[in-house]
Amino acid sequence: MVSGFGQAQMLAFVPYDFKSKNEDYARYSFKLENIAPGGARSRVGIITCCDARCSPDHFFQLDENEVFVIQNGGRRTASDDVVRTLAGLEIATEIRELRAIHHTGCGGLKYADEWIKRR
What we know:
Blueprint: H1 18-29, E1 44-49, H2 56-59, E2 68-72, H3 80-92, E3 97-101, H4 113-118
Parallel strand pairs: 1-2, 1-3
């Protein structure tokens, strides 16, 4: 939504060009030397919201393969899928540190699980 001097206006939806963005990433950003033999080398995990504004890679200036990032609505850490993912990471990797990152204005915290299930 864009707001100006008048009323807020919705911009027309334009599909995101995932294919060309991924090709650019592979060509210019991806560093093959950061791929550890046998899998990820990270020992740190971050759980944060799935809000597009929550990008730990950017706001912590992380390099590739530096942390595991798990994103879900409202940074709910006790959900079955997050617990299963963390259990797998603990078994399969050398993860030693976990951080839960909140953000301001999180819409995911406004809705209880029961409300979502009723929809």
